[in-house]
Structure formats: C-alpha cells, structure tokens
Amino acid sequence: ILLLCLSGMRAELARYSVPEEAERGSFVVNIAKDLGLTGEELLARQARLVPEGEKQYFQLNQHTGDLVVREQMDREELCGQSEPCLVRFEVLLESPLQSFRAEVRLTDINDHAPVFLNKEIVLKIPESTMPETRFLLESAHDPDVGNNSLQHYSISSNEYFHVYTQRRNDGRRYAELVLDRALDREQKAEVDFSITAVDGGTPPRSGTALIRVVVLDINDNIPVFTRSLYKVSVTENNSQDTIVVVVSASDLDSGTNGEIVYSIVQNSVENFETFKINPETGQIRLKKPLDYEEKKTYEIDVQATDGGGLSTHCKVEVQVKDVNDNAPEVIVTSLTSTLSEAAPPNTVVALFNVRDRDSGDNGRTTCELTGEQPFRITLLAADAYALVTSETLDREQVEEYNVTVRARDEGSPSLSVSKTLFVRLLDVNDNAPTFTQAIYTMMVSENEPAGRSLGCLSATDPDAGENARVRYALVPPPTGTPAAASFVSVDAESGTVRSLRPLDYEKVPAFGVAVRAADGGSPPLSAQAVLRIVVRDENDNAPVLLHPHPDSSAAGELMPRWAPSGYLVAKVVAVDADAGQNAWLSYELAKATEPGLFRVGLHSGEVRTARAVTERDAARQRLIVLVRDRGQPPRSTTATLAVALVDDFSDAFHQLGHDPASGEQPQVAEEETLTTYLIASLVCVSSLFLLSVLVLTANTLCKARVRAELSPPSPSCYTDGDFATEGMGGTGTLSPAYRYEMCLTSGSGRSEFRFLRPVLP
Questions:
Q1: Exposure string (b/e) for 52-89, b if CB count within 10 Å is 16 or more?
Q2: 474 in the same domain as 438
Q3: What is the reported pLDDT for 719?
Q4: Does residue 734 form part of some domain?
Q5: Residue 113: other Cβ atoms inside 10 A
Q6: 742 touches 754 (CB < 8 A)
Q7: What keywords would UniProt list here (predicted)?
Q8: 3-class DSSP assignment, residue 36
Q9: How confident is the model at residue 654 (pLDDT cuts 50, 70, 90)?
C-alpha cells in the first residue's frame, strides 16, 4: 500500500515537438534524461503517462525512458487551423508521488494541397470597366498552417488580367484579379485562363481552378453597399436559420440593371457550411449553430450583382460570443482505490484535472466535495487538484467511501459536473479482541469422564480478515500456584472448554483460570477473561460415624431402670464429606432387642426411650441405628449400641461384666474392661473431690469459730428434711442409696456456692 504525501509532489512543464503523421514507434524524447532519472528508477517508481484527453497518443518505455509515438496524429484533425497544436499529458512517478506536466507540439507537414471549392469561377465584367479595377476571387482552402499553408496565387498568361495576393486579419490569403486593359466585347466576348494557389511547403503543393470572364455589355452604374464592413456579434447558442445580419446595396440603374442579387463569395469551407444568404433580401442566416470553442471569428465576403452584371463587394465580420454551454470536465489522472486505515492526514488519494472549454468566467472553475467525509481538495497547479485525507481514518466505523467531487464554473447560469471516486479502506490490526463476558462460570459434575464439553468462550474483533481471526488459549498461572491447566483445555479455534480428567468435589470444589483471546494480526493483540469452573457435587461418599467409633463392635451405654419416657440414652454422631442434600443425614432405628423401647431422632441422632422401662425388659439391649444421606442414590452406614439397664450406677460393672444370657461375651470383653476403668477413674476423682470439700468445710468452720468469739453466733441450720423435697427428689438419675448433706455458713442463704458431701450408709 503506497501512502502518497503532498510534500513529495511538484508540477513542472516540459515542452517537446514531433511532426504530424509520425509513424508509430517514432522517437520523441528521452524523458528520463530530462527528469534526471535512470531507466531502473523509472521502472521502480512505476512511471506512467496520463493523457489530458481520453486518447493516448504517446507511450513511455519504462526501461529506457524513451517517449515514442503510439498512434499517428493528424494535426488538422486534432487542432484544425489553431496554432500551436499541443498534445498535453502528465508523467506520474510514485514513491514518492511526483507529477511532471509535458506538452508535445505537433509541427505541421505539407500534407495538403490548396483546393478551390469550385473548379470553374465565372466572372461577368462589363466592357466599360476601367483598367486597375479589382475583382475579388474565390479563395482556395489549405488546411495546413504556417509556411505550409497557402502563400500566393498566380494566373496563366493572358493580355487582360494579373492577380494580387492579399492577406486577411486572421493570416489567410486571398486573390484579387486586376484588370490591365479595357475589355471589348466586340473583339472578345469571353476571356479564359487558369488560377493557381501555391502553398509554402517543401516541395510546394498547388491547386488550380479555371476562371471564365464573360464580357458584358455596358452598365454604367454598379451596386453600392450601405457599408463596406459589417460587424456583428452572435451568441453561440443561436439555432439554425437565425438571422445573423442583413446586408443592403443599391443601384442607380433602372430596370434589370438596377435589380440586385446577393451572394456569398465562398472563401472557406467553414463559411460555406455555416452561413447562407437570401439572394433577394440580403439576409444572412445560420446553416448550423455556432460553437465558440471551435471558431471565434468568421469573415464573410458578400457580393451584390445587378442585372447588368456589375457587382460590388462588402465584408461581414461575425464575432461569436461565448455562452456557458459546456459543463466542466473532471479528468482523473491517478486514483488509489484502496487505502490503509492507518494512512496519516494529507495522504494523497487521487489526482485530477478540471477543464472547461468555455472562456472567461464561463471557463473559470472551482472544486468542492459533497457531504461530510474525511477528505479535502488541494490545488496543485492551474486546474490541477489532489484529493487528500483530512483526518485519521477508521475502517471499523466506515469501511468504504464514495467521494463525490463537484466542479462548478462561474458562468450564469452556472454549470456543474460531479465525479464519484470509490475508496475502500484496508484493515490494520488496531483493535484487540473483546470477550462477551468478563467472567465465565461453567459447571461440571464430579467424576465426569474426561473430554466432556463444559461450555464455550466467545470473543469478537471488529477488524477484518486475519486481524479478526480470534484464537483462544489458557494463560499460564504464576509460579507456585496450582496448575489449573491440568484440569481443563480450551479449543484454540472454537473456544470450547473441555475437561481433561474427572474432578473430585471434595478435593477441588471450584477453581479459576485466566484465558486469553488473541487475533491473527502482526503484532497480535489480545484480551483476557476469567474462566471459573464450579464442580457439582455427586453422592459418592457414604456417611462416616464419629460416635460410636466405627472400629468398635458396639458402644456401651448405661441406662437406669427407672428412666422415664424420653430419657436420653446416647447420641449417634456422623458426618458426610459430600455437600448439599448429599450431606443431609437422617437417623432411624434399624434393629433393636426391644423395638418399642427406644426411638431415634430423625435429624439429631439422639437415642431416647420411647416408654418407661419395665421389669420385663432385658438388662442388655442391642440397638442398630441406620444413618442415611439424601443423595441419589442414597448412601448409608450403621452404628451399633449396647445399652445396659442398671438399678443404680454401682451395679454398672456387674451388669456390664456378667450376663449369663449373653452369647456375645468374647466380643464385648474389651468394652467391659474399658467401662471398668472408667468407673474406677470416676470413683477416684469423686474421692479427691469429696476430700477437697471436707478440707474446705473444716477451714470454714475454724474461721466461723474465731468470729463467734468476737460476736454472737447466728447460725442457720438446714436439716435433711429441708432439702428432701426441694433439692433432691427421688426421681433423679442417681441411686437412692446416695444421700447428700448441705451445710451453709451463716448469712450464705444467697450465696451461689453449695458444698455437697455424700452421706454413706
């Protein structure tokens, strides 16, 4: 992509010449030398010719720099009588952009001979015409110019006439026939001779016509025009048959000698094709509309002839007035149809010329752009413009532009033309991909087989082509952090997230990993998002018992026989490593020695009596508690409890250690030994506690006795009967064989400390 900048542009004018009708391939000039470049530089900078018109007449050899003729050119066809005849073009060089203007002048060659429109010219001259009288002759036409055009006239030898070659204001030559001696109709009624028109070429070319002079009988008055020169202006937009001017002549003779007939002396092809005259009224009308751009001035020779053959001449000058009948033309010489969106301001997009064939204000033009677009027009030279960018471009906002250049002239009314240039922007990787979400959360069931699709990442890139192709990847975690990439993978093209191995909710309930979306630009741009994987728990763990310990065959519990309904015997404690309802546990009594004696809390796991214990209930009760979770399918485990019914806690060892009906003595031996140790420990601790209480009581009594010596005693005594019903009931969990005495010091009725001591029988 070539970025063209105005700073590297310049416009120069080079002039060359070549003869018309030059053969194809004819050498004109070596442009490389004029530009100071070599053939290799011309080729590298892609030198090319841009014609001013639609046709290309020259060709540039990029290897040698030679400018040669591409097509034969006829100067008369291209320029007519205009001089100089110029063929203009531009030489464009790129990297950087340079524009060289050049013009080649077509030099005329003598390829046309003068031609008379009428091969026979008839003149009627009265015999009374005086010598030295001049007669205007029809001019010959030679389309060549300069020295190759018609230069002079000559006539064949005769005894009555000679010819003078005169020159008009526009440079063209015409002939006047001069009478040398008086004519005598009676001696010679007709004089014939030839006239030759010769151009100045080398070798000269000529054309010949026959002049036949008819000698008329005497007519002593010739017609007289009211003016010898008529000047008139006609606008070019007049239609056919429009009256240009009316010439008028009078004759003093009477009769037929006084009757005047008007005619145009055909001195050029243009006059013959453009004007006509009414022979009776002298009205000159248009045969066709005039065109100021083709010819600006006409000279018409009008002849008035009376009935006797006498004639006179006048000249009519017609000035063609320009009207604004040509709209401007926009000629694009260079166009960059594809432009990078990264092109800086003032980048050249197109070069073009504006041409208007009118003149004056009608030919003065201005250029403008229609609509709001990031372009502007810069004037390079007369009628040469450049379309450049005015600001930075963004393909993601506008991908292509239809830039309309409007050229308007200053005529009244003004004419305009529009030219639309198509410019497409090429993408540059200036946009990073964008994730549709900042955080993606995906679910996966634990123990799901590897390779399952968990979801899909999605990122968009407003660029185009390879710059918009998004590829996905996991971002490597920092050193020392768990490698989440070992759990999941991301498809680079589609963004599909798949598991690499089964996951365990109890080990990894959830984890996060950074993902990157990078485009295919150079250099690539990227964006990051967070991928969070949440593991959905499955019921893959059975409940685990904490109490009773699962390794023991049965847990021993003591329960007094006087236990009422609802008495708390034991509590089964279990946990489940799963989550949610998979970890919700329920308890139920699966099996019992006396099924109606016990019940189990559904959610608490507490084992309580369903009724009061009776004498008929066995001293040893064995319970199996089923612990079940709420997963699908549910998982469960069982707990075994051994409950001993005792009259009081002193019989616990005896009841637990001797059971003649028990057939499971070997299995529970270890549990009974442990129970014995526990009871022994309890007795020791209780003894130490009671001893401490006795010491403390003795100390208190000693202090009380000392205070009694200082003040009257006021003891408060509480008998056993005072606490019999208030503090210690007969329905407690301890054996009635135990009794307690409570002693309080004086004034301790509100004390929060109570000292108990057992009263042993």
A1: beeeebbebbbeebbbbbbeebebbebbebeeebebeb
A2: yes
A3: 42
A4: no
A5: 19
A6: yes
A7: Calcium, Cell adhesion, Cell membrane, Glycoprotein, Membrane, Repeat, Signal, Transmembrane, Transmembrane helix
A8: coil
A9: low
Tokens encoding 622? 């064995």
Co-location of 75 and 153 in the same domain: no
In this prediction, residue 396 has a pLDDT band, given cuts at 50, 70 and 90, of confident
- Which residue range(s) make up the domain with 620? 544-646
Q: Tell me: the pLDDT tens digits for 514-566?
A: 999 999 988 899 999 999 999 888 888 889 988 888 776 666 788 888 889 99
Nearest 5 degrees, angle CA 481-CA 484-CA 486?
A: 120
pTM above 0.70, yes or no: no
d(CA 4, CA 233): 49
Does residue 529 form part of some domain? yes
Radius of gyration of the chain (CA): 65
**Cβ atoms of 155 and 163 closer than 8 Å:** yes
Amino acid at 109: I
User: Are both 271 and 308 inside the same structural domain?
Assistant: yes
Strand-pair partners of 624: 591, 640
What is the predicted pLDDT for the residue at 252? 84
Q: What share of the chain is helix, strand, coil (3-state, %, to 5)?
A: 15, 40, 45
* Closest CA relative to residue 606, chosen from 625, 621, 590, 592: 625
For 78-119, the three-class secondary structure string (H helix, E strand, C coil) is HHCCCCCCEEEEEEEECCCCEEEEEEEEEECCCCCCCEECCC
Q: What is the pLDDT of residues 686-741, one digit of tens each?
A: 999 999 999 999 988 888 877 766 555 444 444 444 433 333 333 333 344 444 44
Residues 612, 560 within the same domain: yes
A 10 A CB-CB count for 512 gives: 14
Q: Domains in the chain: how many in total? A: 6
Nearest-angstrom CA–CA distance, 408 and 126 = 61
337-366 exposure pattern, b = at least 16 Cβ within 10 A, e = fewer: eebbbbbeebbbbbbbbbebbbeeebbebe
pLDDT at 230 over 90: yes
Of 286, 321, 356, which residue is a domain's last?
321
Position 670 in a domain: no
Please provide the average confidence, as pLDDT, over all residues in the chain. Answer: 83
Residues 160 and 181 in one domain: yes
The identity of residue 138, as a single letter, is E
Cα dihedral: 725, 726, 732, 736 (round 10): -50
Non-local CB neighbours of 429 within 8 Å, separated by 6+ positions: 463, 467, 519, 521, 522, 523, 524, 525
Structure tokens at 153: 């006239």
Asked if residue 465 and residue 397 are part of one domain, the reply reads no
Residue pair 370/418 in contact by the 8 Å Cβ criterion: yes
∠ CA 573-576-577 to the nearest 5 degrees?
A: 140
- Residue 730 is assigned to a structural domain of this protein: no
Whose CA is closest to 107, among 14, 22, 215? 22
Please report the pLDDT score of residue 660 as a whole number: 40
197 and 277 housed in the same domain: no
Could you read off the pLDDT of 174-206 as tens digits, one per residue? 999 999 998 888 788 899 999 999 998 888 999
**End-of-domain residue from the set 299, 321, 343:** 321
- Tokens 């054996």 map to which residue? 735
Q: What does the alpha-carbon distance between residue 125 and residue 211 come to, in Å, rounded to a whole number?
A: 12
Three-state SS annotation for 420-461: EEEEEEECCCCCCCEECCCEEEEEEECCCCCCCEEEECCEEC
Whether cis (ω within 30° of 0) applies to the bond prior to 96 is: yes
Q: Are 4 and 92 in contact (CB under 8 A)?
A: no
Note the pLDDT tens digit of each residue in 24-67: 888 988 888 888 888 788 888 888 888 887 788 888 888 888 88
Amino acid identity for residue 252 in this structure: L
| CATH code of residue 59 | 2.60.40.60
Q: Give the DSSP per-residue string, 498-544.
A: EESS---TTT-SEEEEEEEEE-SSSS--EEEEEEEEEEEP-S----E
Q: Are residues 377 and 339 in the same domain?
A: yes
